């Protein structure tokens, strides 16, 4: 395959995502079905995040960034009660992916340290 063909494959107006199969009856399957249903609910996301007429962009962004930060903080607070240095010794995305801190060299750190950097 030529370089042009390779690049065309990834620039077809969509994000490349491998297909995942989940076993029916599992929690992952249930979560996957809920996510699919919410994505197909008919909500126009571009319309939802559009700057309302008459609003100042920086003010609108500031309000939403603070709201996003607060929501992430709530999620992190809940997760950190169960995921500490003893229970989550590495920052990982399941068994297949481990995230390393890069600050000149690759460094393996606990998940709480990774978030703290």
Automatic annotation (TrEMBL):
Annotated protein name in UniProt: Uncharacterized protein, isoform A
Pfam families assigned to the protein according to its UniProt record, in alphabetical order: Mob1_phocein
Binding locations of Zn(2+): 83, 88
Domain of life per record: Eukaryota
Source organism: Drosophila willistoni (Fruit fly)
Annotated gene: Dwil\GK18525
InterPro entries per the UniProt record, alphabetical: MOB_kinase_act_fam, MOB_kinase_act_sf
UniProt keyword list: Metal-binding, Zinc
């Amino acid at each position: 395959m030529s370089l042009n063909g390779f690049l065309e494959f990834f620039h077809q107006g969509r994000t490349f995502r491998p297909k995942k199969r989940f076993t029916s009856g599992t929690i992952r399957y249930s979560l996957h079905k809920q996510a699919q249903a919410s994505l197909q609910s008919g909500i126009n996301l571009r319309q939802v995040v559009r700057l309302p007429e008459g609003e100042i962009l920086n003010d609108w962004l500031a309000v939403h960034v603070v709201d996003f930060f607060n929501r992430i903080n709530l999620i992190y607070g809940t997760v950190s009660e169960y995921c500490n240095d003893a229970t989550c010794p590495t920052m990982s995305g399941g068994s297949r992916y481990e995230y390393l801190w890069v600050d000149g060299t690759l460094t393996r750190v606990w998940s709480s340290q990774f978030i703290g950097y």
